[in-house]
Amino acid sequence: MLDDFLLFIEVARRGSYAKTALALNISAPTLSKRIKALEDQLGNPLFIRSARGVTLTSFGKGLFDQLAETTLDLHSAVTQSRQQDSASFVLHCPQNLMMGLLYPAIEKFALEKSNVNMVIEAANSNVLLSQTSFDLAVRLGQQKDSSFYQKRIAEVAVCLVSKINCSNKNRLIVPYSDSQLHGIEFSQIEKQYEQKSIVNDITLVRKLVTSGAGVGLLPMTEVNELQQSFQEQFQYESSIIFTRPVYVLWPNKPKPTELASFLINSIEQCVQNIPALQGKVVNL
């Protein structure tokens, strides 16, 4: 009803349905229907129509004189609040992705949306999402939380990787928990190694593999970093063991906000150019 009352004020200010419809980018029939619906709710006509336009009835003039200024002030405050909200953007993303393969998308957002106040959280915990507000989150693995809308945008293959001439191939270094490996036939692979190290940081696993500390279970996002920094120094110890999907998640509405859509499109453009994000194996 508040929106319709605002329409009433705008028509009264201009004295014309046609001019108001044009100024507010709304069709004249729609405007007329909404004013008629407001009159029905109030139980009194608001305007007298003539060939020259419209004039207020005595009832309409009383409403306009009493409430127009307050309604316009309220509308202005709401508009400013929405503009302030749209000028801030909170992103949650795993640190290895935003510092690596997805950095071009984040860089593009920062450069082209220079008026936006960005907050970037380097995190990969779904629990954290449920406890804070955010505009967009990037997550690896299946997402079971139905409280957020989501879109699958990429896929990352996972293989065993070691340094060539590694002297410690009896150690398996794993960055995933048992729950993350649930449903994967991994026990037979584990039996091939005398020691197993659980390391809850994917970047640290990559560094350990780089130093020859063992055989790492690495996603292609990390293997790509190895290939870029140390060409022809590493080798695969397996074919693809499993793949992990990459999702973007957002709250509140089925359609992401304009800023979130911009970043999603930028990420998807990155994916198109990077085999490591397409479920493919990086050449070593």
TrEMBL record:
SUPFAM superfamilies (alphabetical): Periplasmic binding protein-like II, Winged helix' DNA-binding domain
Keywords: DNA-binding, Transcription, Transcription regulation
GO MF annotations in UniProt: DNA-binding transcription factor activity; sequence-specific DNA binding
GO biological process, one term: DNA-templated transcription
Entries under Gene3D superfamilies matching the protein: 3.40.190.290, Winged helix-like DNA-binding domain superfamily/Winged helix DNA-binding domain
Pfam families, per the entry: HTH_1, LysR_substrate
Domain HTH lysR-type: 1-57
Family affiliation: Belongs to the LysR transcriptional regulatory family.
UniProt name for this protein: HTH lysR-type domain-containing protein
Native source species: Psychrosphaera saromensis
